[in-house]
Amino acid sequence: MSLDISPLLESWDYQPGKLQVRSFRAKDGTDKIQLRIDLGVMQMNASGRPDGRRPFGRDSLLDHLEERAEKAGGDFKLTTEEVGKLSQEAVQFHHRYICWFQMSEYRRVIEDAEHNMELFAFATEHTPAQELLNPMRVIMPQLLMLHTRSRASLAIDAKEPRRRRGGGRGGRGGHRDLFPRAEPPGAGRAQR
């Protein structure tokens, strides 16, 4: 087996500014997604965790940690390392739902985006320090936008005008949950 991926890259030119995504079935029968990036290709599993791993025998690290939290009761706190690993898992799902959106696979976008919403809520509840969540907060605005657009796209495809009008409501105000302490510019200043 050659480690050189040059033939693959030469057959799929990188185009700056264009999101290039494709899906295929691997020799082992698993469905994969590839995202062309400037220095190569990012490959993800199409189901389960994008990296194909099963942490502690579970579908995701989030599943494992939720199970632990349930057993521990109200005293459960994540370690700094666990928050970091949850952030890594969130980034993997983030890459994949961006790919799904590019392929107009809106149900898959919603599924992966909701995984990350649940992950963020869980991490927020159990983190030992709020600043550890900053890497996750960076991806949340795009997550909310893609989740909302996917819901609206499905409603449009289904020709459901009521749902289409309300399709964006899931995104409205969602940012307040992400940045609860943020104040708009000028807030708190004395009026002249």
Write the layout of secondary structure elements.
Layout: H1 6-10, E1 20-25, E2 31-37, E3 40-45, H2 61-72, H3 80-102, H4 106-126, H5 134-157, H6 161-166, H7 174-178
Antiparallel strand pairs: 1-2, 2-3
Helix pairs in contact: 3-4, 3-5, 4-5
Gyration radius, rounded: 19 Å
Query: Mind describing the biggest β-sheet?
Result: 3 strands, antiparallel
Low-confidence sequence ranges: 166-173, 178-192
Note the overall shape.
globular
Name the beta content range: 5-15%
Sequence of strands across the biggest β-sheet: 1-2-3
- Helix proportion range: 40-55%
The number of distinct helices, counting runs of at least 4 residues, comes to 7
Please give the alpha-carbon distance between the first and last residues: 72 Å
**Tally of DSSP β-strands:** 3
Helix-strand string: HEEEHHHHHH
Class by helix and strand content?
Answer: mainly alpha
| pLDDT averaged residue by residue | 87
